[in-house]
Specification:
This protein is an alpha/beta fold and about 500 residues long. The protein is built from 15 helices and 17 strands. Strand 7, helix 7 and strand 8 form a beta-alpha-beta unit. The structure holds 1-O-alpha-D-glucopyranosyl-D-fructose (TEU) and calcium ion.
Length: about 500
């Protein structure tokens, strides 16, 4: 043991459950399907899984509109299936994190039904209600994220008031100034922690508590992001961290933090390591795959994070095009460079299902589109094999979203091929596990040009990437190549000059 907490040393893996593995042939991935694939994730070397939303939902936003926070969506299984997943995962050395969505519920949640019933409802104040202006326009100029960025307010004709919805009208924002709402979410967290869930990924947590008085946003209004009462949001995070830490072992809080600079991102860990344990680094994920832009993001994170704070590195998630396409244009050399980067920076990597295969963004069009914001192409079914149905469902059925090119990249073929992308990622994860330098060693930039990026990890490990189309030489590298994107170089001695072919990289120690 080095860092202590399992999640500092480990690798996390996001499973978009509806698309991972279908156990009952209805075309929708489910909990039992995931349970049946735990052997694969253990083989890969995953320590924890973040599950996309599992709770009952009308699916206006595919589970991010929760109708009951203490149950399981029938499409995905039952609470017993989730208990079974947690137990089986533990036997495979894997922890399960659920997705918690506290910013808003579904408009079909019974809380919202109560709240909208009348102005006098005991739950009226659980959501954010205001009178429209005398001319009928919304109470302020805040915009919603979805639906073309119209007003974040919807009129409820029955009571003549408007409610706040930063996302869809079907996702009314909860009122986090209300103590009963806070208590309800304490209860929800306890409910899942008591069942053995290892923690939560928490949706849009950085925007949780809205500014009191709901003032107009100055300047040109933006979609979301500037409406939070940050000090009060920190207070809620401290409350949650105390709750998570009261469990043995302590539960993990991983936040979806929309912070576009390192100091703000750092602040969500609290001043005394008493808020989030981990916070997603969107400036990194959304940067182009370009050393000139990425190095400053990594260096700012390293410079600003305190000794307690631990970075998170992610290339893909369910909201944005997959990195093998977005960063790498499908070029295998670039895909391996990106995987090498994600798995050798100082911090916890979060892989998105299929990242390990180099799975591409899928073109989803016309009648196949299911998502309000068109994010389907990053959410398509996992490729388990080259056979008809890609090994996704048993029996073979048409899945809820179309497959990508599963003949080109799938688990079965790559698992049998020591030279595959999958073998590269697995070997990298294994190297991380055995290397104190890679798990916990300090980061220091050695070279950063527009073409190449090299850094030291810990006492004697160097990672070097050539992020250009021409050969590069990195000077002063000594040791043995532990792993290279071109696997034939594994084991090569390096005495000073490390030559790197275009778009290649290596770990040397
Ligand atoms: O995402 C928050 C968020 O702001 C994203 O919606 C992002 O701006 C958008 O996807 C870009 O197209 C979280 C969840 O990850 C997302 O899936 C949900 O739709 C959203 O919250 C609402 O719960
Ligand atoms: Ca199913």
């Amino acid at each position: 043991m080095t860092g202590g907490e399992w999640w500092r040393d480990g690798v996390l893996y996001q499973v978009y459950l509806r698309s991972f593995a279908d156990s009952n042939g209805d075309g929708i991935g489910d909990l039992a399907g995931l349970t049946s694939r735990l052997e694969y994730l253990e083989w890969l070397g995953v320590d924890g899984i973040w599950l996309s939303p599992t709770m009952p939902s009308p699916n206006a936003d595919w589970g991010y509109d929760v109708a009951d926070y203490c149950d399981v969506h029938p499409d995905l299984g039952t609470r017993a299936d989730l208990d079974e997943l947690v137990a089986q995962a533990e036997a495979h050395g894997i922890r399960i994190l659920l997705d918690l969505v506290p910013n808003h519920s579904s408009d079909r949640h019974r809380w919202f039904a109560d709240s909208r019933a009348s102005r006098e409802s005991p739950r009226r104040d659980w959501y954010v209600w205001r009178d429209p202006k005398p001319d009928g326009s919304p109470p302020n100029n805040w915009l919603s994220v979805f639906g073309g960025g119209g007003p974040a307010w919807k009129l409820d004709p029955a009571t003549g008031q408007m409610y706040l919805h930063h996302f869809l009208p079907e996702q009314p924002d909860l009122n986090w100034w209300n103590e009963e709402v806070r208590a309800a979410f304490d209860g929800i967290q306890r409910f899942w922690f008591d069942r053995g869930v290892a923690g939560f990924r928490i949706d849009v947590v950085s925007e949780l508590v809205k500014q009191r008085g709901l003032p107009d946003e100055g300047g040109e209004p933006e979609q979301f992001g500037k409406h939070a009462d940050i000090p009060e949001t920190h207070r809620v995070l401290k409350r949650w961290r105390a709750l998570a830490d009261s469990y043995e072992p302590p539960r993990l809080l991983l936040g979806e933090t929309w912070a576009m600079d390192a100091p703000t991102l750092s602040s969500f860990h609290g001043e005394a390591d008493d808020e989030l344990n981990l916070a997603f680094n969107f400036p990194f994920m959304l940067a182009p795959f370009d050393a000139e832009i990425m190095v400053p993001v990594v260096e700012a994170t390293e410079a600003v994070f305190s000794a307690d704070e631990w970075p998170v590195w992610t290339g893909s998630n369910h909201d944005f095009p997959r990195f093998p396409t977005r960063w790498c244009g499908g070029d295998e050399r670039k895909i391996r460079c990106a995987q090498l980067l994600l798995l050798t920076l100082r911090g916890t990597p979060v892989l998105y299902y299929g990242d390990e295969l180099g799975l591409q963004q899928v073109e989803v069009a016309g009648a196949d589109v299911r998502d309000i914001a068109g994010r389907d192409g990053a959410r398509t079914p996992m490729h388990w094999s080259a056979e008809d149905g890609a090994g996704f469902a048993e029996p073979v059925v048409k899945p809820w979203l179309p497959f990508g090119d599963f003949a080109a990249r799938n688990v079965a073929d790559q698992r049998g091929d020591r030279g595959s992308t999958l073998a590269f990622v697995r070997d990298l994860i294994a190297l991380r596990r055995e290397s104190d330098d890679l798990r916990t060693g300090a980061y220091a930039t050695l070279v950063a040009t527009e073409r190449s990026w090299a850094w030291r990890r810990g006492r004697r490990t160097t990672v070097a990437l050539n992020l250009s189309g021409a050969e590069e030489v990195v000077e002063d590298v000594e040791g043995t190549i532990r792993i290279a994107t071109s696997r034939e170089r594994d084991g090569e001695r390096v005495g000073g000059r490390l030559r790197l072919a275009p778009w290649s990289g290596a770990v040397v120690s």
